[in-house]
Specification:
Elements (H helix, E strand, L loop, with lengths): L3 H10 L6 E5 L12 E2 L9 E2 L3 E4 L1 H5 L4 E8 L13 E5 L11 E4 L3 E4 L2 E4 L9 E2 L10 E3 L7 H9 L4 E5 L4 E6 L3 E2 L10 E2 L2 H11 L5 E5 L3 H14 L2 E5 L10 H7 L3 E5 L3 E2 L5 E5 L4 E6 L3 H19 L7 E5 L10 E11 L2 E6 L8 H6 L2 E5 L11 E6 L2
Parallel strand pairs: 5-6, 13-16, 13-17, 14-15, 17-21, 19-23, 22-24
Antiparallel strand pairs: 1-12, 2-11, 3-10, 4-6, 4-7, 5-9, 8-9, 18-20, 20-21, 22-26, 23-24, 23-25, 25-26
Bound molecules: adenosine monophosphate and magnesium ion.
The site of magnesium ion has 6 residues, from loops.
C-alpha cells in the first residue's frame, strides 16, 4: 500500500500528449487552444464613433463655427464618407466609420438640431469620442496564446478574427466500465438482492462537464468475460475508467485480468479512505491508462476528482491548481490513512469555509449529493483544531 502523495505523483507521472484536432468554433467551448490566435486586422479595424451624435472637423471650432449644416446620416455598416466642407457635419451613430476630413465627434446630448443645422452648446476637445483604428490590437498581434481554455469570452475573440475552425487539444477516448452481478439498469426494478447502477452514470455526467462523452460498458463478475471485453476496450480507448472489482473479494477479477492483458500495474491500494483499493495501471507504448476505482459510490467519486481530473488537466497542458479551505470544526485525523471528508462550503467574510457532511461511509451516495467537495485530511495522531486550512477538492 502506498501513501496518497506517492499515488498522486505516480498518476501525474503517467500523463501523455493527446495531440491536436480541429473542431468547429461552437464545438470548441471548454476545450484548450493548441494554436496562437492572431489579429487578422487592426482592432478596431477603422476609426469608429463611440457615440450617437455629429462628426465635425475641429478646424471649424478653431475658426469659431458653432452651427453646422447636416451633410448626411452615417449608420454602423456604411462605408466611409468624406466631409466636403468644415462648416458641415455628418450625423453619426455608434459603430459607424469616422468620415474623412472629420476628426471629432460631439454627442447628441450636447447639440441642438433645427431643420438642416446642428448647433453645439459646448466646445469639444479635438479627437473626442473616437475609438481609433488599431488602438486595442494591431494586425498580426497574438490575441490568445496556445494553452488558453476556451471560455464564452474567448469564443467572442475567435469569432471576431474569423476562426470558424479552431485547433484544440484532443481529449482522451474513455470507456467507463462498471462491474458487478448485483447491478441492474436505471430503468429496471431491482430485485431485493440487486441495486441500480449509479457510478457509471455519475462518471458519465462528470466527464460530460469536461467535454468528454464516454462509452459505457457493463461487465458481469465473470473472469472470462472480463478478460475478453477488457482486451477489446483497451484496444479501442485511451483510458479505461472502471468501478468495482478491485478489492480483495472472491469476485474482484480486475487486477488479475489487467495483468494477463499486459497492463503494467503502477500501484494497487492507497493509504486513504474512501477509495483505498484504487488500482492504477498503464501500457506505456500504446499510451493507455487505466483508472480502476473501487465500486463504492463515494470511493469512485472521490478518486475521480482527486486523481483523474488533475491527470486530465496535465495531459491538456493546463495548470493543476491546489485549492485550500478553512474547516470550521476540529477534526480527528486517521493515524495511517489520508481521509477525504465530504464538506459543504460557504464564504464568510471573504473566506471560503467548510463544514463536514455527516456521511454514512463510502456506500452512502445520498450524502455525496449534499456535499460541495472533499477536504484532504493527512494522517496524524492529534486532533486538528478548528480553523485548520486543508487542501480542497471541489466536486460541484
Ligand atoms: P466492489 O468494489 O465491486 O466490491 O463494490 C463495492 C460496493 O459498491 C458494492 O456494494 C457494489 O454493489 C457497489 N457498486 C459497485 N459498482 C457500482 C456501480 N457501478 N454503481 C453503484 N454501486 C456500485
Ligand atoms: Mg463488485
Amino acid at each position: 500500500m502506498i501513501s496518497f502523495e506517492n499515488a498522486y505523483d505516480q498518476v501525474l507521472q503517467h500523463t501523455f500528449n493527446l495531440g491536436d484536432e480541429t473542431v468547429s468554433l461552437l464545438e470548441s467551448t471548454g476545450r484548450v487552444l493548441s494554436e496562437d490566435i492572431r489579429a487578422d486586422r487592426d482592432f478596431p479595424p477603422f476609426n469608429r464613433s463611440t457615440k450617437d451624435g455629429i462628426a465635425i472637423a475641429f478646424s471649424a471650432i478653431e475658426k469659431g463655427v458653432t452651427r453646422f449644416k447636416i451633410e448626411g446620416v452615417l449608420s454602423a455598416g456604411m462605408p466611409q464618407q468624406t466631409l466636403s466642407k468644415d462648416t458641415n457635419c455628418f450625423e453619426i451613430m455608434t459603430g459607424a466609420v469616422l468620415p474623412e476630413q472629420a476628426d471629432t465627434i460631439i454627442m447628441y446630448e450636447e447639440t441642438e438640431t433645427e431643420d438642416d443645422y446642428v448647433s453645439i452648446s459646448k466646445t469639444p476637445n479635438k479627437g473626442q469620442n473616437i475609438h481609433r483604428q488599431g488602438t486595442d490590437e494591431k494586425e498580426g498581434a497574438i490575441l490568445l496564446k496556445k494553452g488558453t481554455e476556451i471560455t464564452a469570452a474567448v469564443i467572442g475573440v475567435l469569432a471576431s478574427v474569423g476562426k470558424n475552425k479552431v485547433t484544440v487539444k484532443k481529449l482522451p477516448k474513455i470507456c467507463v466500465v462498471s462491474t458487478g452481478n448485483e447491478l441492474v439498469e436505471v430503468e429496471d426494478k431491482p430485485l431485493p438482492h440487486q441495486i441500480r447502477k449509479s457510478n457509471s452514470l455519475s462518471l458519465f455526467a462528470a466527464l460530460e462537464r469536461v467535454k468528454i462523452t464516454p462509452t459505457l460498458l457493463h461487465l458481469a463478475d465473470n473472469q472470462a468475460i472480463i478478460e475478453k471485453e477488457l482486451e477489446k476496450a483497451i484496444n479501442n480507448f485511451d483510458v479505461l475508467m472502471l468501478s468495482g472489482g478491485v478489492s480483495k473479494g472472491k469476485f474482484d477479477f480486475i487486477p488479475d485480468a489487467m495483468d494477463k492483458l499486459g497492463i503494467t500495474k503502477v500501484f494497487h491500494r492507497v493509504a486513504q479512505r474512501p477509495g483505498k483499493p484504487f488500482w492504477f495501471g498503464v501500457q506505456k507504448e500504446k499510451q493507455k491508462v487505466i483508472f480502476s476505482f473501487p465500486g463504492n459510490p463515494v470511493s469512485t467519486f472521490a478518486n475521480y476528482h482527486v486523481y483523474f481530473l488533475p491527470w486530465l488537466k496535465k495531459c491538456l497542458g493546463l495548470k493543476v491548481e491546489k485549492k485550500q479551505i478553512i474547516l470550521e470544526e476540529a477534526i480527528q485525523p486517521h493515524p495511517s490513512l489520508t481521509l477525504f471528508v465530504q464538506v459543504t462550503t460557504q464564504y464568510k467574510k471573504g473566506k471560503l469555509m467548510a463544514k463536514t457532511v455527516k456521511g454514512n461511509g463510502s456506500g452512502d451516495l445520498v450524502s455525496l449529493a449534499l456535499a460541495d467537495g472533499f477536504i484532504r485530511v493527512p494522517p496524524g495522531t492529534d486532533e486538528m483544531t478548528q480553523e485548520t486550512v486543508f487542501d480542497y477538492i471541489e466536486t460541484t
